[in-house]
Amino acid sequence: MSDHTSEATPLLDIRDLHVGFQTKSGLVPAVRGVDLTIYPRQSVAIVGESGSGKSTTAQAIIRLLPGTGRITQGSIMFEGQDLASLDARQLREVRGSQIGYVPQDPMSNLNPVLTVGYQVREAVRENKTAVGRAAVRARAIDVLSEAGLPDPADRMRQYPHQFSGGMRQRALIGIGLSARPKLLIADEPTSALDVTVQRQILDHLGTLTDDFGTSVLFITHDLGLAAERAEHLVVMYRGRVVESGPSQEILADPKHPYTRRLVSAAPSLASRRMQAVRHHESTEVFGDAEGQFLARAEEREAEAVEEKPDFIDIRNARRVYKIRTGGLSSREIVAVDDVSLSVAKGTTTAIVGESGSGKSTLAKLFLQLESLTSGEIRFDGKKLGALNRAEELAFRRRVQPVFQDPYGTLDPQYSVGDTIAEPMRVHRFGTAKEQSARVTELLEQVSLPNAVRERYPSELSGGQRQRVAIARALALKPEVLVLDEAVSALDVLVQGQILNLLTELQTELDLTYLFITHDLAVVRLVADNVCVMRKGQLVESASTDEVFDNSREDYTRELLAAIPGANFAFGA
User: Which of 79, 461, 543, 557 is most buried, most CB within 10 Å of its CB?
Assistant: First the structure.
């Protein structure tokens, strides 16, 4: 690893940066006196919990602060010019071509009414990386291919809603890299990606750093990613930098109490985090709930899950989509291919696999948001798809989803309180007073202050929006939760709290979970059984211990080997 501090001139030099958001009650500070230096060819990661100011710092660099946010003090020097003082025209010359940006939330950053190809072509044209219609189209196809999208020429014709969450994120990564910028700001660039594609994308970023001199600023909550991919680490807490230095030194021997909390809570340390946490003497991360959580985990390790009747029974499920390829011609894509699995009441079944493997489509089939091409699904003995209106309403109350993309599933015109209360109003669950009290209770359960009920989704961080989505799903006290990447957007401390909450609720209420995820470290913590999907097919299905300790398939072993930071000794 090269010594970038010996470089004569930093690429980016931030000094005493302050950022605030104007509200009715005055200016609320979000970033307080941040100093940050990035040298050419260097990779830097900013880590911290949701709301720590890490994304706001990144957005301030390219002057794309949301809403009423503004820089109130400080300088942002990029190659000798202060970005904080540039006008709109000068900023356009820098954005994209010199500083690339990969935002956190793909669905809100891709236009839903334009094809993905059109949006990539626009970026190529704007950044002047190709001239002429044919050259722009060829470069756009290359951009999608470099980002790891299969069949990029066909994907150009598709719309964002036809992409999985991971595919949308890859398209954004491609756009951010399209002009070979000198600095790439990547805000949670791989939070929606499975571990194998994550490795592919991060390897590609590493190649850019080495071959083209591109510096990378990661904004992430994944300490495993920071350990493997960033040379320098900046830890933020409540808008301030609390620790900064070489990544591996900080993560192996953290000095600040907050950094120690992050390291002790990280689930991506290895696939056996339960044993690692058990040796921690401090309970400051999880509080009193830690003991209950570990007791439940040990109980699940020590005892085989008792035989229970199948609560969810999926038999030979198949879902085929037709994709237009030009004119009147089309081709078929098999998203789910003859999948059969069963889930016992009160257990957690994790469905894992790469982006596009069909795991989210399978969840939508069970939720009756997509229709089966063939096969059948039964819930509590009743065949779905043959329910009358009253039975379907009862099904909706008993089964609640938490989707991967909270921004796309929360109404931007509804306050947080109204969003959480909406299911209760629809299903006539209690009086208005009881609904209000339930909203307060749910906000507390997902670690959000009651004052958040008056705010709107656009005023929340990605992690905060996901917590609101979980609170809404719990509002009706359902029997089944379908969790589609439900904790992927959360920082490690809140992730630990949510996993504790889910585990406690399952124990108390005999809840059943379908856990759709690419985070295998989380799977190890919470799942009784694991189903591994690849290209629409179920390739392995067994107990969690069997899959992690004695997996039969090479593909499963590849997934396990790709977990970021699995071999790094955190907090040693």
Answer: 461
